[in-house]
Amino acid sequence: MSAFLTRPDLPFCKGCGHHFVVRSTVKALEILGVDPLDVILVTDIGCHGIVDGHFATHTVHGLHGRAVALAAGIAMGLPPGKKVIVYVGDGGATIGLQHILEAARMNVDLTVVVHNNMLYGMTGGQPSGLTPRGFRTAITPQGVKLPPHDLCQLAFDAGASFVARVLGQGDFSEVLHRAMRTEGFALVEVLELCVEYGVKWNPGLRLKALVEEAGLALGTWARPPRPVFRLPEAADGSPGPRGPGLLDLPPVETKFHSTLRGRWALVLSGSAGEGVQQAAMILARAAMAAGLHVARRGSYPVTVGVGFSTAELILSADPILYPGVQEPDAVVITSEDGLSHQQDRIRGMRRGILWLEASLSVPETGAEVRLRRFREPAGARYAALYALGVVLQETGILPLEALQEAIRESPLGSQFPFHLLPRENGGSGG
């Protein structure tokens, strides 16, 4: 048995072309002479993807249509000498066509093997964007009316270094070997017939005749070598972006003291485009500077600048094991949009405090209601941040000085009118 497989049997239907793809892949890797642990196989959703456990290489199972994007990220982060291979079906290739074209355009160093059995095999045999015209499927019993995408032509035009189209019969390991030894993006489209759905709906059809009738040219196409896309090297010579990564960022220095004991959940809700999410991030940084653990989640419509904007924050003296806000201790509403979005939550409150913009109607709630004017003194742009200042002033959970410093360290910086913030002992001022 090959060193690239964990078992000799394969999990596909009898007669399925996927058998030939796997056998030819293994032979190509053996010819290439790489170590199994220097190979990363990324599989998409589809019948081909159930082979993960049969490979002795590293394997990653991706989302439908996203395997190429996932593999591109892996390839960019690996040092030279590693080989990234993608298994994707014609359905996944259709869904992720933009990912394929972008990886080809960038010339990312990976090999994409497309198992084109001309339909979605795992969901009942529906046509994909690569199904030939006239091919009958579960939902096109009279035959597909549209011509297929020419995937090889699209990938090559986008910039692929090597593309090939072969029949999924017999041994085509030499073509796969050429693709794998190519520096840059390579794609091999393997044409197959699904023995369950393709043969069932197209009795008597022969694969070679289908390919000829569809006008799908078999062969290989290569272009002169061009630079492979790589991330700039880090200071230590390893691949990756220069400078610190997310996990390398320095921790927020504890400069202030918090009176909070336990966990405190706050919901801030207002209008999109009025700085709700920015205000929540500033409060989160202020809380961390006071030694607290913080979790934050934002929600807003796809329009971004119209409608509601809501931020949920959890401040805790102890590590936060669950970041969801089910029963808030405080809800802060700065506009009609925010009130409308949080109406059900407010109605269900049986405790806690509702800080409400004074110009709004008071909703039914079991929470203590505190009417405050947020928009009049601060305007729409700073109403959310001003409201958080009021909350800190009235609860004393954090010193206002912590909020002020977090504002200075934010993109707002010195442009923020600090005189709007309430004083520690009440009123307004810097």
From TrEMBL:
<dbReference type="InterPro" id="IPR029061">
    <property type="entry name" value="THDP-binding"/>
</dbReference>
<feature type="domain" description="Pyruvate/ketoisovalerate oxidoreductase catalytic">
    <location>
        <begin position="272"/>
        <end position="410"/>
    </location>
</feature>
<dbReference type="InterPro" id="IPR011766">
    <property type="entry name" value="TPP_enzyme_TPP-bd"/>
</dbReference>
<dbReference type="GO" id="GO:0030976">
    <property type="term" value="F:thiamine pyrophosphate binding"/>
</dbReference>
<keyword id="KW-0560">Oxidoreductase</keyword>
<dbReference type="Pfam" id="PF01558">
    <property type="entry name" value="POR"/>
</dbReference>
<keyword id="KW-0670">Pyruvate</keyword>
<dbReference type="InterPro" id="IPR002869">
    <property type="entry name" value="Pyrv_flavodox_OxRed_cen"/>
</dbReference>
<dbReference type="GO" id="GO:0045333">
    <property type="term" value="P:cellular respiration"/>
</dbReference>
<dbReference type="Pfam" id="PF02775">
    <property type="entry name" value="TPP_enzyme_C"/>
</dbReference>
<protein>
    <submittedName>
        <fullName>Pyruvate ferredoxin/flavodoxin oxidoreductase</fullName>
    </submittedName>
</protein>
<feature type="domain" description="Thiamine pyrophosphate enzyme TPP-binding">
    <location>
        <begin position="44"/>
        <end position="190"/>
    </location>
</feature>
<dbReference type="InterPro" id="IPR019752">
    <property type="entry name" value="Pyrv/ketoisovalerate_OxRed_cat"/>
</dbReference>
<dbReference type="GO" id="GO:0016625">
    <property type="term" value="F:oxidoreductase activity, acting on the aldehyde or oxo group of donors, iron-sulfur protein as acceptor"/>
</dbReference>
<dbReference type="InterPro" id="IPR051457">
    <property type="entry name" value="2-oxoacid:Fd_oxidoreductase"/>
</dbReference>
